[in-house]
User: Fold N(G),N(G)-dimethylarginine dimethylaminohydrolase from Aminipila terrae.
Amino acid sequence: MFKNCIVRRPCKAMVEGITSAPELGKPDYELALKQHDTYIEALKKCGVEVTVLDALEEYPDSCFVEDPAVITSKCAIITNPGAGTRNGEKAEILPAIKKFFSDDQIEYIKEPGTLEGGDVMMVGDHFYVGRSARTNEEGIKQFIAILEKHGLTGSEVPLEKVLHLKTGVNYIENNNMLVSGEFIDKPDFAKYNKIVIPDNESYAANCIWMNGTVIVPEGYAAVEKAVKDAGYEVILVDTSEYRKLDGGLSCLSLRF
Ligand code: CIR
Assistant:
């Protein structure tokens, strides 16, 4: 069960955030703030304390707190984001992590390794790590060594198309996994009960399990139904403005 979440308010500069889909237009900052409020309320409904960090205008993508850190049951790992404009976010997240973890529980991914938390999917004590344009072989090697030092395990999953691993695949506990596109037939995930996301709703592969409830992005009826049919309570949160920056529900929080 998760007890805590860390989120960071979006900044006005988010309109200059990285995107692979400029055709969706720039995010509406005021609407993004309202959606962030709703997101925080949804997390709280799932029984967690939410730490809300101040917006950081120097980093347009800094509301996506999942990327500069990974939190496990045994340790926190400050990553080394592969996106140049985001790399400095690792220093900005550290004070918040230090409120929950002592220095000997905090590990670091170091150059030349790069890794972003969006590429890390936790399944119990095992962590799948996407090798992507943001997360390199050396970053994965360091990450798995850190996991093993703390009695956890990890394995690499090469990505071909999507930004981060969790853009396309998410574990929602009870052996259930939401899978889309390139992940549907990956042998790595053969042992899970796969809930296959239709191509026209692929954005909604990024749902989060929160203490028995699954938070699903609003506007994806097939995914909402599939998650409900799998037996979960569902809370819908509209993330339209974050989608314009390739960001989804998991990207907006650290959950631990
Ligand atoms: C980026 O390209 O880094 C941001 N615009 C989106 C980050 C999404 N984060 C995630 O999937 N964990």
Observations:
- DSSP finds six helices and 15 strands in the chain.
- The chain has one domain: 4-255.
- The mean pLDDT is 98.
